[in-house]
Design brief:
Helix content: 55-70%
Shape: elongated
């Protein structure tokens, strides 16, 4: 009985280590593959560099639906002296209808 318990603990530990190493390898691979292609694509189109595109997005929470959206793409309104961000104009209208009720 104790031997089975030890084998289970060792297998959980081994699976955890294996998943960690695979995750590190996949992150490195995606940075290698993704970093090269996004730099080439942005330089060929004459747009922002890949580093500025990655760090440009500040996430804000939609006051109606609760999803996170970038500040640049959000519909921004000041309501009762407080800044609110919305994913769409429809969410803004729904929030205004809900707050009137």
């Amino acid at each position: 009985m104790i031997r089975i318990f030890i084998y289970l603990l060792l297998s959980i530990f081994a699976i955890t280590l294996l998943r960690m190493f695979i995750g590190i390898a996949m992150k490195g691979f995606s940075a290698y593959v993704g970093g090269g292609s996004s730099t080439q694509a942005s330089s060929s189109k004459g747009t922002k560099s890949a580093t500025s595109a990655r760090s440009a997005g500040v996430l804000r929470k939609d006051s109606y639906s609760g999803v996170y959206i970038t500040e640049e793409s959000a519909v921004k309104r000041v309501i009762n002296g407080e800044v609110h961000y919305f994913a769409s104009e429809e969410n803004l209208q729904a929030y205004l209808r809900q707050s009137r009720s």
